[in-house]
Amino acid sequence: MKKLMENIYEAIGETPMLRLSRITNHYGVEGNIFAKLEYLNPGFSKKDRPALQMIEEAKASGELKTGQTVIELTSGNTGTGLSIVCQAKGHPFIACMSEGNSMERARMMRALGAEVIIVPQAKNSVKGQVSGEDLKLVEEMTVKLTKERNAFRADQFNLDSSYRAHLLHTAVEMLEQCDGKIDCFVDIVGSGGTFEGCAEKFKEYNKNIRCYIVEPANAAVYAGKNLINEGRHKVQGCGYAMDLSKVNKELIDGCIQVTDEEVTQMTRDLAKLEGTFVGFSSGANVCAAIQLLKDKEKGKNIVLTLNDSGLKYLSTDLF
Ligand SMILES: Cc1ncc(COP(=O)(O)O)c(C=O)c1O
Question: Pfam families in the record, alphabetically (predicted)?
Fold first, then answer.
């Protein structure tokens, strides 16, 4: 058990890992899915980890000054992590978020002391579905405010500290919790930080561990496919159909596509069968694992993360 803590951010990481045997039985596949329960972090998502790593490294290097404002664009999860870390370390925090993301995220960040700027979506966008175009608008606002407020940008898409959180911690914990018995890793990418950090560590441990990128079928750019329906999908926090600066393509052993319908069903199954109450992107990872266990990776051990809490989706049609 962790000792008595002085700061809430000390509770980030060292999350439990669960074998999803009820899901593999239900889908009639051979093999194991080992899921890291990242929604049990203090901000209810895996993005608490890069939030902490980015702030600690920037403070250590002197790039982030005492009391300086921090800013970042977020689908809500990195912003929640940053709200928690910045509050405890004495930095005002500004979160820039698309109005396409579910609003419980904005309310949560405000409750945690953040200033939240909601950026209107592009003309053709749909509420609950944040496209690459929407993200561009949020990026423009973030760049503008960074200058105006003389803020430090906790840039999850471009700082090495963002993926190092997973290289130094998430992947190391997974290897330990699975006694190193990992054959594959699947991950739906947003910034690509989790994929890059974990894939790099796994390949360093054993170059035969296969690492698969997961993408919404409508936005499968890593698989070399054209956008369908302008790349729209329901998987918030991921699938922006863009080239990710942090992802080393040499680490990718394959790409898997998942549809909104199968992701929604799987996320509901996770709650009902396993008692893991999580969001769309977690369901996407498990869908990808099931696809692999049915065919190419039959009988193997697949690791993945359950990324955030289902409580963040109560205003959507998920539950
Ligand atoms: C719910 C959710 N799932 C997945 C991701 C993607 O993680 P990464 O940025 O490490 O690729 C994010 C990123 O914000 C997220 O919020």
Answer: PALP
